[in-house]
Amino acid sequence: MIINGVTIDETFAEAFPMKGTRLIITALNAKWAMISAQTFTGFATSVIACGCEAGIEKVLDPSETPDGRPGVSILIFAMGGKGLAKQVETRAGQCVLTSPTSALFSGLESETEIALGQNLRFFGDGFQISKMIDGKRYWRIPVMDGEFLTQEKTGVQASVGGGNFLVLAESQEQALAACEAAIVEMKKCPNVIMPFPGGVVRSGSKVGSKFKALNASTNDAFCPTLKGQTKSDLSPEVESVMEIVIDGLTKEDIDVAMRVGIQAVCDLGAENGIRRISAGNYGGKLGPFHFHLQEIMA
Amino acid sequence: MSTLTFTLKSSPEQRIDCSLLTTDLLADKSAAEIAAIELVTGNTTARVDSLFDISGDDDQDIKFNNSDEKLDFVGRNMTGGKVTIDGNVGAYLGLFLDGGKIEVTGNTGIYTACEMKSGQIKIRGDAGDFVGGARPGYKNGMTGGTVIVTGNTGDRTGDHMRRGEILIEGNAGDYCAGRMISGTIAVLGDVGAHLGYGMKRGTVLLTQTPSQGIGANFNDCGSHTLAFLPLLLASFSKFDSQFSSIDSFDRVQRYAGDIGGIGMGEILVKI
Predict the structure, then answer these.
(1) Is there a smaller number of Cβ atoms within 10 Å at the N or the C end of chain B?
(2) Residues in Cβ contact with B70 at an 8 Å cutoff, skipping those fewer than 6 apart
């Protein structure tokens, strides 16, 4: 398949099951809601070392938030419910509770729930106040700037992590420009995040390593400087490869985001140095969700 | 299906225990069976059809017409459906109510919503003493649901109240929120003396400063912006009440008390 001179490989991205939730952070103004959200989602690029993958889903208008203040919705994913609960609690405690004027709400309803403010309330040292509003429990925790309001629990749902595609270009500048264009469009999609810096990964990995201590290592087949040293998957004209990783609440959400992102890359086309779109494919060893590029772009 | 209607034939000489006439207990009963139910009145019993004219057949939508303040225990233990009372009603309306909706066009007697668990009670007139309270000798009042009073409430509103909401569009009497354990009482009008006496936790939300002031058993914590208030006020929007249309606010003067006890209750006065 070729779109605007860009070859779409007959391959698929492999993704794996995760547990995810959506949180809504509000603050006195949009600036501080964003600061709190960025802090919460910091160091959350990959479960390999961060314990979770998190990112900002959307900036919310005051009319879209529970307390009528400016807000940001974030998505956070982990490999299991317990791990997710731990990450949510520690990040909420250190990054939202501490952030001036913030409040924290669940943005996902589900029968399965994990603690949000349930344990943070003890920071109130006995002065915390519980409020049941519309069947949901909230905690009001006295803090030095007033009161920190947080919902007691948030819903958790089975999600998908690790959807991805690779952008193969003739130069770093062209690969980066294409990825930036893709991220702009993909950020408009609901229920997904691209957790890596700016949404783009330059150090895609393969499963395993020659070093026993590591379970992932550089994806040498896509490293342009190794074209003469390893079994390369790159043609001579490809000088840079960048990857976009997508986590989503459902497989369908990732399908949509990948289609939008790949289309944005292809719109730049061969004339802007984009040669191929490929994907992280590990022969089915990584996960049960397979995103076939050509099917997505059909 | 039409509303199952009980029209009181005449003003009763003795109080009548109507706790058997609920949506739960009348479900799937025939007209003859309903007519034959014996209600306790005074020191004897009387058949339902000797006290009421009965019409309609929807046992999940019950109405009392020509109601009287001697009809007690209406809606007791009910878990669903709707009961409408045209007129006044007696004591213990909605005792142990655990779902459904009760609406009264007139006034209610004492112990309205006593130990109510969930559901909604709407009173278009005034309510008696001990709204949402606990039975004498018991320690927990209402534990959930919403009571809306268009008029005024008597004394000791929310006595021993543990959870839920009491929304009063008029005035509340003396000892409002006395011995309150938790929950929310909101009053658009005035409140009487000894507000929050013995209050442990919970919130009293006032849109105006009480004419009798705040008692010495509450300490002034200053003026604050509280983020939960817009959520709370927004949750009132679903009700058929003045509370659904009040402008949202988050600025209040906060008083904590009763400092004679654990002092974790709060009175919030809109500023």
Answers:
(1) N
(2) B11, B12, B14, B15, B16, B90
